[in-house]
Design a protein that fits this description.
It is a single chain. This protein is of the alpha/beta class. It has one domain: P-loop containing nucleotide triphosphate hydrolases (Rossmann fold). Helix content is about 35%, strand content about 20%. The chain contains six helices and twelve strands. The protein has a six-stranded parallel beta sheet, sandwiched between helices. A hairpin with a 5-residue loop joins strand 3 and strand 4.
Length: about 220
């Protein structure tokens, strides 16, 4: 359970909160909820997102259920350090897309007394730790792991399965490209993909293509 830190004016250090999980798990929704509460409390809040994320809006951070908050798109983590001066609370969405400097940026801000709230995918579409997220989770005071619902089993889902054959690590997408899966469903889906690729690249298929090409010559 997430417990927000109490304010101790004798201690000038801030802290880092990480919200992580699979796609469609409500990470951005939870980020927006916390930031809007800070705004309601009249704290100085700034929100940042990677400039490449233009799925819903060029500037706003928007959740899958269309909840939104104004943000500043930045091309690199270093820009956040320059633009965060004078803030009480900093929000960062889709942190997995930032370069590794995002870790030192968040820690530097927290050391200056800023509350830093970060949301991002903890694993990529292959089930591996994603970008700077592991380091952020390790250095954060609070880590909240949220879950989606598996589209195949109805169980809790913590994997983001890519339905397309694209192998690029960074690929923005929605339900047409991704679906949240449980561990069992993800393992089965990945195994099926592996079998498909083995069949496509099998010696029989390769020799068949070669013999076919020779007959055409």
């Amino acid at each position: 359970m997430f417990l927000e830190n109490t304010v101790n004016h004798k201690e000038q250090f801030g802290w880092i909160e990480v919200i992580c999980g699979s796609m469609f798990s409500g990470k951005t929704e939870e980020l927006i909820r916390r930031l809007k509460r800070a705004q309601f409390a009249r704290q100085r809040v700034e929100i940042f997102k990677p400039a490449i994320d233009i799925r819903y809006d060029d500037e706003k951070v928007v959740s899958h259920d269309e909840n939104e908050i104004r943000s500043t798109p930045v091309p690199a983590a270093a820009n956040i350090r320059l633009l965060a001066d004078g803030c009480d609370v900093i929000g960062i969405d889709e942190a997995q897309f930032f370069d590794d400097e995002i870790v030192s940026v968040c820690n530097d801000l927290a050391n200056k007394g800023v509350r830093v709230i970060v949301a991002g995918l903890d694993m990529d579409f292959k089930g591996n730790p994603f970008g700077p997220m592991p380091a952020l989770m390790a250095t954060a005071e609070y880590v909240t792991k949220v879950h989606a619902v598996c589209t195949r089993t109805g169980n809790l889902a913590n994997y983001s399965f890519r339905k397309s054959g694209n192998d690029q690590l960074v690929m923005l997408g929605e339900t047409a490209e991704y679906e949240p899966l449980s561990r069992a469903a993800f393992y089965k889906a990945m195994l099926e993909e592996k079998v498909k690729r083995m069949n496509v690249q099998s010696p029989e298929n390769v020799s068949g293509k070669k013999s076919g090409s020779n007959s055409n010559e």
